[in-house]
Amino acid sequence: xxxxxxxxxxxxxxxxxxxxxxxxxxxxxxxxxxVAHQDDDLxxxxxxxxxxxxxxxxxxxxxxxxxxxxLKWSGGYVTRREMGVQQAYSALAGRPMRPGRPSPWRAAPVxxxxxxxxxxxxxxxxxxxxxxxxxxxxxxxxxxxxxxxRPSLLALFRSRVRSLDAxxxxxxYTEPALxxxxxxxxxxxxxxxxxxxxxxxxxxxxxxxxWADHSDHAVTARYFRLATLRARPQGRxxxxxxxxGYGSAVRPPNLGAxxxxxxxxxxxxxxxHDERRTRACPGHYCAPTRKVAPHYARWLQRHYARRAPxxxxxxxxxxxxxxxxxxxxxxxxxxxxxxxxxxxxxxGTARRRWQLADGVLRTGSGDAPxxxxxxGGAIVLAPCTGASARWAMTGQGRLRTGGGCLTQxxxxxxxxxxxxxxxxxxxxGQRWFTHRPRPTADPDRAR
Length: 447
What we know:
By secondary structure, the chain is of the alpha+beta class. The chain contains 8 helices and 22 strands.
């Protein structure tokens, strides 16, 4: 019988309440929000953030890029944006900042893996959750098509640069160092939930008529997915959810009037700081009187989590996914194509039909059945004989054979492909989903 394999992205867990967080604040749970730069969280992940806080969760928000728009650090634009999210989270927490009053935020640097990261903390009091914001300040590469050629997260992910320097000169990160730092933050904060941006998106352009997404959004989400797999938060399971970014503008509005109003009000507290002329808002607090540009309503009225793969009967779907052809379908199916085995957008055709039975991964297309085999690390079609590869699906969704595990490279990597690689829990490309009829109970969800 086919088996439904659930990866980390979709598992729902019952999480025991953690110990009180530092400073004596009690948290029913902790949510870690990982985004590219300031306002990504407010536009695309909220109101899930407000819902978590209202439910008693402490918030840990990590900004990977500086949101510098390729402007110089000395110009103050990044600093204004960092002040803006402080004012926004004060409003979200019901502790609005006041003109002429001291800021309720306190410096709270975080040291992980030998690095000290800039951070601030809003103490909610002995019985209320607190909020911490952490800033890595890496360059975002700007909004133009030159971003891949500049020092940027996209250039790092595509191996065009070996390392990135923070725009304030505070640190240098190679890709392994960045992933390890994010994983260390997850281990330090012990969240039950990690919320990030859309880690399936491969349509990377500046927002505009096509409503593709910025590259630092997509790459940051991928690094948080990798960090979530790598982290070992004292054996505590995590729930990882990605959220659609600019592309959600093509979706119907799905927030009611009250939730839209609250989301907008929080964003307005940030928006007054997002100004390249610092004289427009010289203080730590500025009254949110500057009118939000009308096009922001597209995201303030919407909130779309990236759904997990939903395999049809007889399909095997990769967790990697792709939104290169749109924002409503991201699934990549194992497919047979001219005698080769690869992945392609799930379209329901016979070439996407597979069955794993008695250790044989068999395709349903063609006059004669063919099976997935291995030749020199490549995945090939071979006759279904006793000599063909023997496959097994593990409880973590890995398709394993004698030489390793079936692996789909992330489509943003240079020259991505389908291959056999050493089995590891740290590679999202080794997560696969297949179908199981309902209403049979799913034992994996209870793990």
